[in-house]
Q: What sequence folds into this?
């Protein structure tokens, strides 16, 4: 199912299958299939950026209510965010977001399985993250493998909260 491109919506472009599952859990919790579209995996963070540049910039310009989340692994590379951010044209910066696990999602899952009740899968992680966004909570978002996302997450929530979290 795809979103109505003329209404406010969020497209999620995941790097790999683990990120895809997290994105699906996020969407499942919010139950907004007509507002959130999860794209197929790009198969690598550089391929996410290439696909964004080659296939999505034109659509974001064409549809002013489109927002896109680039969901990548940071692979413990401190310059990964700024490198990826360099792909985003300045005039689209307020509608393009980059989030991801500091190393890889499997590292997050391994730690979360031990320390967070009720989380057993990547989709459960996505649901928990969406729930925290909806409830203005940051227990899981505050995890040492996710805390680096805080400025970008806050920026994204300001943009998408009206149509993803209307309460």
A:
């Amino acid at each position: 199912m795809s979103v109505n491109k003329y209404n406010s919506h969020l497209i999620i472009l995941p790097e790999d299958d683990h990120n895809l599952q997290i994105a699906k859990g996020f969407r499942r919790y919010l139950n907004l299939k007509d507002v959130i579209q999860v794209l197929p995996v790009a198969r690598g963070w550089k391929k996410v950026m290439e696909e964004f540049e080659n296939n999505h910039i034109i659509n974001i310009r064409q549809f002013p209510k489109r927002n896109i989340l680039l969901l990548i692994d940071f692979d413990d590379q401190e310059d990964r965010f700024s490198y990826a951010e360099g792909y985003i044209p300045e005039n689209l910066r307020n509608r393009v977001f980059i989030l991801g696990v500091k190393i890889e999602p499997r590292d997050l899952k391994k730690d979360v399985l031990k320390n967070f009740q009720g989380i057993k899968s990547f989709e459960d992680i996505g649901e928990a993250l969406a729930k925290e966004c909806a409830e203005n909570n940051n227990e899981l978002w505050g995890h040492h493998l996710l805390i680096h996302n805080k400025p970008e997450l806050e920026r994204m929530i300001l943009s998408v909260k009206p149509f993803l979290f209307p309460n």
Remarks:
- The chain has six helices and four strands.
